[in-house]
């Protein structure tokens, strides 16, 4: 599962939107859509923490989203 798919799954589980995540995590919508459009997208740690905090999940859940450790 890609980072984008993982984040969208978490958003759907909580009935939240990408716009909500942008506001709650303080990240731009461009960041989310770069994940969708770039297969080799690498998220920086600060952004990952903001997303995990906003969606209330452990950073460990980011691990192995596509079979590799991020």
TrEMBL record:
Domain of life: Bacteria
Domain HTH cro/C1-type: residue ranges: 44-62
Signal peptide start-end: none
Family annotation (SUPFAM superfamilies): lambda repressor-like DNA-binding domains (SSF47413)
A Pfam family that the UniProt record links to this protein: HTH_26
InterPro entries: Cro/C1-type_HTH, Lambda_DNA-bd_dom_sf
Protein name (Swiss-Prot/TrEMBL): HTH cro/C1-type domain-containing protein
